[in-house]
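Journal club prep — side note

Before the paper discussion, L.F. wants everyone to see what a predicted structure for a comparable chain looks like in token form. Sequence:
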Amino acid sequence: METAQSTNPLITNDAIVFGLLMTVLALVFYTSKLQTFFWKRFYRVVPTVLLCYFVPALFNTFNLISGAHSALYDVASRYLLPASLVLFTIGIDIKGLKRLGTKAIIIFFAGTLGVMLGGPLAFAIVGSTFPDILHFKEEETWRGLATIAGSWIGGGANQAAMLEVFGASKTLFAQMIAVDVLVANIWMGLLLYGAQHRKKIDRWLKADNSAIADLEKKMEQLHAGQSNTAQGISNWIIVLGVAFGATGVSHLLADFIAPWFEMHFPQTAQYSLTSNFFWLVIIATTIGMALSFTKARKLEHDGASNIASLFLYILVATIGMNMNLKALLDNPKFFLVGIIWILSHITITLLIARLIRAPFFFVAVGSQANIGGAASAPIVAAAFSRYLTPVGVLLAVLGYAVGTYGGYICGLALQVISNWLS
């Protein structure tokens, strides 16, 4: 989602914007390899992926570029994301994923519970302190907040469903999108930062991450032979052919399946089955996982996951350019609700994780599968290990399934709080 800016950005040509983003990525990775005292200390604190995310956000904030005026995110999310999902999953150890157990599911639903309880709690706290927030231009604010609940449990389709169900105006909805995008993206940035310090967090959680470590080690051993077996550009072209060929098939099937559901079973919109993007992600991931049982798995030796990582970093940069930090000044009380809301989600997720001794990986990916959905959960998963990206996808799909139910229940609770404070 995007927050519109009042004036056109300085740079509107997407070719120039893309060149700028790629230059940022190049500078980040170049400086991360430098062995000077400053850069070594700097990147010990600030992870590379976080810079790839926040530098474009700063460009957008100061109107140098604008996600609202660019098609780059659409290109990256519709072409590069499914291609990266195919390449990430093509070499995955499916049996290893099964050994991760049920903790990932438990943490995901803990995050869902955190959203459902956190919204009404945040609204009650801010509404009792600032009663004027209960209404926005003579409209009940809770109707708009319910759309955030749909987004933070499921995704865009679930958010749109809550918009239709509770009838918020487009003006109020625009305010809620700003809260959604900014708060969710700040939290994503913190998760990316936390991924670099997961050992310390795991110690606090008293976590057993042996299953994750075993899977990662096994996949690293498979990946280790890459530089010795790669045979140059022909192998890379084969990798790209498989990635974008599968992406093309995914688009072809999604363009058929989504309209079919919309025409014959429109009620399934609440499960995102009428969403083209939902099917695109599902089909691309399924193709990649199916290929992992064939000889195509050997493409991992030819750089499949490296190319997928490149695509993912480009996606990170395009997501960042949709974040406007100045939106905090538009209606700070709404953002205060959003901040308390996300803190409630974080608190409940961490408490349950500590109770069941779940590793921080499950916390980060389970949380992002709720808050960010299929476009960003794989990014957070890849920040821990490129080989665990499918976990983010699978949990995000689960979010699509429960998002409408959770968002609806949360919306009703918000209405009760509004009536109680009025």
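L.F.'s comment for the group: The longest helix spans residues 389-421. Keep this in mind when we get to the figures.
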